[in-house]
Amino acid sequence: MAAMQRHTQRNQRMDLYRGLAIYAVILIHILLPGRAGIAVRVLARFAVPLFFLTAGYFSWAASPAALAKRAARTFRLLALACIPYVVLGCILAVQKGKNPLAGLAPLLNLTAWRNFLLYQIIPFPYAWQLWFLGALASVYLLWWLLTLFYRNRGLFLPYDRLGLAAVVLLALHLIVGEGSVLLHREVPPGVLRSIPFDALPFFALGCWTAYRRQDIRACSFPFYLLLPIGALLSLLEGWLVGAQELYLGTLVLLAGLMGRAVQYRRVGGSPLTRALVFCGQELTLPIYIVHMLILALLRECPIFPPLISSGWLTPILVAVLSTLLALLWVHRNTLFHSRRPRGRRIAPPSAGRR
């Protein structure tokens, strides 16, 4: 029990990596020009798998009730996140001379609902990146069912077997993804991004990492060496097979990040480091939700295109505006509501206490 309580303490280095990863997501979604832009996009592929890994790490030994709450909270967040994208779809429909209700058409489309259930595809304009929330909520739900199944039988989850199964699934992901390109076969991207081949294996590996954290800390392996190896391997794979959801180099890079985070939980105290740790702990989901809305505004509003004529300026502008909106969201209660209780009167001290 004491070990579980110590595990619940936040790992600052993982939050630091999450803070870096959310800005890497922006670099994935905004195509940068030239070969340098392609290289940046290839290297940034670690971002979304890292979110699943850390979600699994922090869910190790979580009770079924806690997992159910996380699943419900993430589904609720997904529903709220879809609202502005639905409104955006209606506005774009008006701009194209259509009925504004045309933006609601995906809600009545059975194919769209099937694609959401299978691949978590959100059928609204600029909302496709919200698949991550749907996948994360589904994984929480699946892990809740799995934990409940074992807890009711008085057993613990077989983390080693689940970790091995996760490695097999990710190997299949790489074989199907990169192999299809080398063999000139086309595979629908939704298949590779589906929960069994992407979200669930990374989540399970995150839980396994937490389960084996003491062994990792006792290990003297220099995990930082995996970072340049994974980066170089990813660049090589990107040159050979083009854009993919996952590279072998990405897995090597993630192994280095997770191993180093487990071995060295604390980070330095510089202002930039503290800011990234705070971002990784508090702002990742708000930034993830709003950054495509900001990009849609910059692209669709006729006022902004002259301001973003440079391809490298766009992700910087989106990152800054997304961070500001995320800060407003996180601190909304402090900004718009007084914490001082209303209607309470402090009784004067009694005569005997003067």
Walk me through what this model shows.
The protein is an all-alpha fold and 354 residues long. Helix content is 69%, strand content 0%. It has 16 helices and no strands. Helix 2 runs antiparallel to helix 13 (248-263). The longest helix has 32 residues, at 64-95. The relative contact order is 0.14. Mean pLDDT is 85; it is low at 1-8 and 338-354.
Observed structural traits:
single chain; 354 residues; mainly alpha; 16 helices; 69% helix; disordered C terminus
Rg is 23 Å
How much strand? under 5%
Biggest sheet descriptor:
none
Coarse structural class: mainly alpha
H-E order:
HHHHHHHHHHHHHHHH
Globally, the shape reads globular
How many strand units?
0
End-to-end C-alpha gap: 48 Å
Secondary structure elements and pairings:
Blueprint: H1 2-7, H2 12-29, H3 34-43, H4 47-58, H5 64-95, H6 110-119, H7 131-151, H8 159-182, H9 189-192, H10 195-211, H11 213-218, H12 226-241, H13 248-263, H14 271-300, H15 313-330, H16 332-336
Tell me briefly what this model is.
This protein is mostly helical and about 350 residues long. The chain contains 16 helices and no strands.
